[in-house]
Amino acid sequence: MRLTRRAALGLLAAPALSRAQGAARLLVVGGGFGGASAARFARTSYPELQVTLVEPQARFVTCPYGNLLLGGFRQIGDITHSYDGLQAAGIRLVQDWAAGIDAAARTVRLRGGGALAYDKLILSPGIALRWGALPGYDEAAAEVFPHAWMGGDGSQIELLRRQLEAMPDGGVVGISIPANPYRCPPGPYERISMVAAYLKRHKPKSKVLALDAKDAFSKQGLFQDGWKALYGGMVEWVPASQDGAVARVDPGEKVFETEFGTRHTLAVGNVIPPQSAARIVTASGLAAKTGWAEVDPLTFASRAAPDIHIVGDANNGAPMPKSAFVANNTAKQAVACAAAALRGQSPPEGVYFNTCYSHVGEAYGISIVGIFRPGPAGFVEVPDSGGVSPRGVLPEQRRLEAAYADAWYASITRDMFGG
Predict the structure, then answer these.
(1) Residue 4 has pLDDT above 90, yes or no
(2) Distance, CA of 207 to CA of 286 (rounded, Å)
(3) 66-90 tens-digit pLDDT
(4) What local confidence, expressed as pLDDT, does residue 6 receive?
(5) Which of these, 95, 115, 149, 185, could form a disulfide with 107 (CB 3.0-4.6 Å)?
(6) Considering the chain, what is the average pLDDT of its residues?
(7) pLDDT in tens, 388-416
C-alpha cells in the first residue's frame, strides 16, 4: 500500500522499541550488495537482533564482474554466490518477492502470501528498468537486444555472450548508454572494453559502436587511453552532442536510431535502458518524482517513513555513485543507525567510501576513489579525498590495478556472504 500522510505522521510519533517486546526484528529486503551486507553485518555486530532476509533468487549473480564474462575472462559460476553462509550465521532466509509495504503496521506483504512484521526495515531492492522509456524497448525486445544490467539468474549476460559468439566477423556490436543516473556509472565503458577484448581475439574485423546519451563519463580519459592502446580503431564512442543519443530501437530490424534520425544496423545490440528504484519502492510511495528514494544522509531513513532505511542503488545518494562498494558500506551505516534507534541511542557518525575498479583488458585495470559524508541538505564529497588512476603508459600500474580489482571482488563477496 502507498504511504499516507497519516501513516507517516504516526511513524514519526512511534516510541522506541520496548525491551519487554523481546528481540527486535530487523527485516532486510533484497539480497544484493546492500541487502546481503546489511543482513550479515547486523547478525555479526548486533546478535540481539532477529534478522530476516527476503530475496526471491536462490543464488546471487553479481553485476560487477559480469562484463568479464563477455570478454571471456570469467564463467557464470565465478560470479554466482550462495546464501548458505548467511543462513548458517543465523539469518532467516525467505525466498519470495516483497509485494507491498504497510508502513503504519510495519509489515511487508509477500507475493507468495502472508506478511512479515518488522521493527526496522532495511530496503535494498536495487533498480527497475523503465520499460518503454526508450521507444521500442520492452521486455520482449530484451530477448533480442539484451540489457544484461540486472544479475537475476544470469540469463541476460549469458544471452549477450552467446550473441557475441554467434555473430559474424565484421559485424557491429552496438551499445546504447543512458543519461545519468543509472547503476554503476563506469559499467558501460568497462563493457565496451570487454566486448572489444573478445572481438580482438575472435572477431578481429568487427567493431564496437557505443552510442551515448551523455557527453562525458566516469574515468573517460583512462578508458579512452586504454581503448587506443589495446584495441586501436575497434571502439567508436559517439557522445550525445555528435548524435550519440539513441532515440528509438527496432529489434525486428536490429537497428538503433539516434535523435537526428541516423539508423545503425547491428549484428548484436546491447541496450542499457533508463532506470529507477525497484518497483517495491515506487509502488509503496517511497520514491520522489525522480524515481529514486530520498533518504536522510546520516541514517538512510526514508524521508517518507523513518523506520524504513533505503540503501543501495534505490536511493538518491548523489553525488555518491550507485556502486557495489557504496551499497556495502552504507548498508552497514543504516544497520548501525537502526540498531541505535531501537536502543534509544543517537546514530553514529557517518562517512562513506567508494572504490570502483574497471577492467579495460584482462591485465589492465583502472580505478576511481571517493569519500563522502552527510551534509545539511544531502551527501557531500569530501574535498581532495579521492581521485582516479594516473594517466600515461604505465603497464605495471595497470597490471596491479587489475589484480587489486580481483582482490576487491573476492573481499567484498566474502564480506557479504561469509566463507
Answers:
(1) no
(2) 42
(3) 999 999 999 999 999 999 999 999 9
(4) 33
(5) 115
(6) 94
(7) 999 999 999 999 999 999 999 999 999 99
Q: Is 338 exposed, middle or buried (0-12, 13-18, 19+ CB in 10 A)?
A: buried
Q: Where are the beta strands (DSSP E) in 160-282?
A: 172-177, 207-212, 235-238, 246-250, 255-258, 263-265, 268-271, 275-277
Tell me which residue of 363, 354, 416, 346 sits closest to 387, measured CA to CA: 354
Report the candidate in 129, 57, 156, 110 with the shortest Cα–Cα distance to residue 282: 129
Cα 231 off chain centre by: 28
User: Quick check: 322 and 299 in contact, CB under 8 A?
Assistant: no
Between vectors from CA 379 to CA 378 and to CA 381, what angle results, nearest 5°? 145
Average pLDDT over residues 45-53: 97
Burial class (CB in 10 A: 0-12, 13-18, 19+), 279: middle
Residues 103-145: tens digit of each pLDDT: 999 999 999 999 999 999 999 999 999 999 999 999 999 999 9
Whole-angstrom distance, CA of residue 93 vs CA of residue 353: 28
Backbone angles phi, psi at 139, to 5 degrees: -65, -35
Please give the grid coordinates belonging to residue 104. Answer: 503504519
Q: Do 83 and 417 meet the contact criterion of CB atoms below 8 Å apart?
A: yes
DSSP per residue over 23-52, as a string?
A: S-EEEEE--SHHHHHHHHHHHHH-TTSEEE
- How far from each other are the two terminal CA atoms of the chain, in whole angstroms? 38
Domains of the chain: 5-56+96-128+276-347 (3.50.50.60), 131-273+356-413 (3.50.50.60)
Q: Residue 66: name the closest of 234, 172, 187, 235 by CA.
A: 187
The pTM score is: 0.93
Spatial contact of 208 and 173, defined as CB atoms under 8 Å apart: yes
- Grid coordinates representing 232? 586501436
E strand residue ranges, 181-335: 207-212, 235-238, 246-250, 255-258, 263-265, 268-271, 275-277, 308-310
Determine the Cα–Cα distance for residues 414 and 419; give it in Å rounded to an integer. 6
Neighbours of 144 (CB within 10 A): 17
